[in-house]
Design brief:
alpha+beta, 2 domains, three-stranded antiparallel β-sheet, 14% strand, elongated
Length: 101
């Protein structure tokens, strides 16, 4: 792997089969400084830390699940227990119609 951090850019040239390279431009000095500190705390190079951050950001396990998102919306809307229970019932068209009246 050839890596460089220069002029607010991170350049990763990962040589080998099925490996890509990426250049991230216009990184602020503050972000680059924070990335260097984070890498140092984890005992990694800046490039390794950036790679781990990117991997975590696109990893399916770190994505918000639909049920969790809906539950959060319900909490913010301050639904009562009875209102929330409507979403947990088996759904039929007739049941939904009567619940919405």
């Amino acid at each position: 792997m050839i890596a460089a951090v220069r002029d607010g850019k991170i350049r990763l040239n990962l040589e080998g089969a099925n490996v890509a390279k990426i250049t991230v431009r216009n990184i602020s000095d503050d972000v680059l400084h924070a990335l260097r500190l984070r890498a140092s705390r984890h005992g990694k190079s800046v490039e390794d830390e950036a790679r781990d951050i990117l991997s975590c950001a696109v990893n399916a396990h770190s994505r918000v699940k639909l049920g969790s998102l809906l539950a959060e919306i319900g909490r913010k809307a301050k639904l009562s227990d009875d209102e929330f229970a409507l979403f947990q019932r088996p759904r039929s068209e007739a049941a939904l119609r009567s619940a919405l009246r």
